[in-house]
Amino acid sequence: MTHHFAPEILREYDIRGIVGPSLGPADAHATGRGFATRVRRAGGTRVAVGYDGRLSSPDLEAALVAGLVASGVDVVRIGLGPTPMLYFAEAILEVDGGIQVTGSHNPGDYNGFKLVHAHAPFSGDDIQDLARLAAIGDWEAGAGAVTEADVQDAYVDRLMLGYAGGTYRIGWDTGNGASGPVVEQLVQRLPGEHHVIFADVDGHFPNHHPDPSVEANLADLKRLVVDKNLHFGIAFDGDGDRIGAVDAQGRVLWGDQILSILVEPQLRETPGATIVADVKSSQGLFDRIVALGGTPSMAATGHSLMKARMVETGAPLGGELSGHVFLAGDYYGFDDAHYAAIRLIRAVHLSGGTLTDLLDAMPRFVNTPDLRFPVAEQRKFAVVDEVLARLVAEGATVDHIDGARVTTPDGWWLLRASNTQAMLTARAEARDQAGLDALLAQVDAQLAQSGVVRAD
């Protein structure tokens, strides 16, 4: 028996695609067979499995579990919940790996699998290896047992260990994603006044799409916070590993700004520590880390790559512009938006002020969101290489950890190839609009030389 995966679903960080055209139960079964084979050949015997609230998730989870047991591993099913709860289960249960069935923040017709083996991301070449094993049917055989474990209570208990007092009025928007039940239980334990919206798990996403990195998706939370005169609001993506926030005035805090707030208490507790941020993050964040005596480390975008850099540097804290926040030190090192929310409340409390005060104190930059433009899959990395070669020849100040991040007197701009889609993304940041316009002109000039026109 063999199986061939559609190449486009084998991403750098996970397996993900459109259900029906490119991903279905046969892929879930083959993922289970291959992952179980890798686990057994490394001496393991048990795998935890969870799934998010998408309409296709139960069927994919059933096929995944069938594949795992057919290759001889025992499965612990933790049921419906956010991705960080699966990561938590993998960390605390006696298992050798874990798989979450999730489409993350993608549109509702997507789904896929995030995988962890021996407390580390299973990504990159490991995912390609699942395709290799499937193509030749090189799978172990066996008959694993299936048990169930309810870890939600233990997970919420662990989240509360990060709480450090402070009574606030907070709005919470789970966007009908998988975080709803966890957040509803969490706010019962927190002091203060809490308003949770869209907590029902519904894969139709009837209110707005659960992706807090898009400002339009935060409109309901902004309205809730302002109308009810709350201190701030917190939002989550569909599988609970990305956080968004708004202050009392309804102003958005992006992932790098949230991390900038978490940095101060972290560096008080671990002076001089390394803090990791992705290449899309504001220069203001890197400057803040230095000003507080920390060591900034710039990393490639992507949760698997960020986790690897965290381990490599021993960093207790890291984050991405997109809202992934990674907490190590007294936590497990994975990206957990619920624990990030608890730590954000803690940081506000320890500051002695408000979230609005903290946002007001940040240096002002003018920046773009991610600017996206389609480029053929086979061409996208070549374009970045061409741009890098020209920049180096020109003697530009360029960081090439992930694409090209160019620093100029006006500010900086970034061009990188998406690891999940057939497109390039660009971002730029300056002190004023004139500087930003100058940076974007540089981006457009470089793209034009490689035959690409920005389509934003």
Describe the protein's architecture and organization:
Belongs to the phosphohexose mutase family. Residues 372-445 form the Alpha-D-phosphohexomutase C-terminal domain. The chain is an alpha/beta fold. The chain folds into 4 domains: 7-150, Alpha-D-Glucose-1,6-Bisphosphate, Chain A, domain 3, CATH 3.40.120; 153-249, Alpha-D-Glucose-1,6-Bisphosphate, subunit A, domain 3 (Alpha-D-Glucose-1,6-Bisphosphate, Chain A, domain 3); 255-339 and 348-360, Alpha-D-Glucose-1,6-Bisphosphate, Chain A, domain 3 (3-Layer(aba) Sandwich), CATH 3.40.120.10; 366-449, Alpha-D-phosphohexomutase, C-terminal domain (TATA-Binding Protein). Helices cover 38% and strands 23% of the residues. It is built from 14 helices and 22 strands. It has helices spanning 25-41, 57-70, 83-92, 125-136, 152-160, 180-189, 219-227, 255-269, 283-291, 303-313, 337-351, 355-360, 377-394, 433-449, and strands at residues 15-18, 46-51, 74-80, 97-101, 110-117, 120-121, 146-148, 168-173, 192-197, 232-236, 243-247, 252-253, 274-278, 295-299, 317-319, 325-327, 366-367, 371-374, 397-399, 404-408, 411-417, 423-430. Strands 1, 2, 3, 4, 5, 6 and 7 form a 7-stranded mixed beta sheet that branches. Strands 17, 18, 19, 20, 21 and 22 form a 6-stranded antiparallel beta sheet that branches. A hairpin with a 5-residue loop joins strand 15 and strand 16 (325-327). The protein is globular.
